[in-house]
Amino acid sequence: IKMEGLQLISHEKNQGKGAAIQTGLKNATGDAVIIQDADLEYDPNDIKLLILEMQRDPDLAAVYGSRNLKPKRRGYSFFILGVYVLTQLVNILYRSKLTDVYTCYKLIRTPVFKSLGISSSGFEFEMEVTVKMLQRKLAIAEVPISYNPRKFEEGKKIRFLDGLIGLWVLFKNYF
Hints:
Radius of gyration: 16 Å
CATH architecture: Alpha-Beta Complex
Number of domains: 1
Low-confidence stretches: none
CATH superfamily: Spore Coat Polysaccharide Biosynthesis Protein SpsA, Chain A
Strand order of the largest sheet: 1-3-2-4
CATH topology: Spore Coat Polysaccharide Biosynthesis Protein SpsA, Chain A
Order of helices and strands: HEHEHEHHEH
Number of helices: 6
Mean pLDDT: 88
Number of strands: 4
Oligomer: single chain
Helix content: 40-55%
């Protein structure tokens, strides 16, 4: 792929979502970073909503795209329940009011993101980045976004075990 200003970086072997984000973050040079998964469950047209919210409030460290702020969220009910439970635990422990901790769409100011010292290599990245920002009492806003979930037979990779690992990351960073 050739495009002005685009640098393609890849791993020889798949090391997980968190590892890919860490590699990309080391090379990030802009004001803010957002993750876009290649499966297009998240609509790239929604990115502008996150950017506009961050531009509106310069005190924000991050803007999350929430799948739960729109009516009739689609997806597997056990995933929706799992994200809800994990999000509520985060809210209880950190006295926050987030609605979707496991959203892919997290627009984070680059200096903040780089300072978090993320070590996760898998889906637990989503929990670690949120917890580390909340520990620092950094401002996070949410905006509603679209979501078109894939089915397992279409390649959906997140599993129940990923939720348990996220729970472990939450408690490890809290206690």
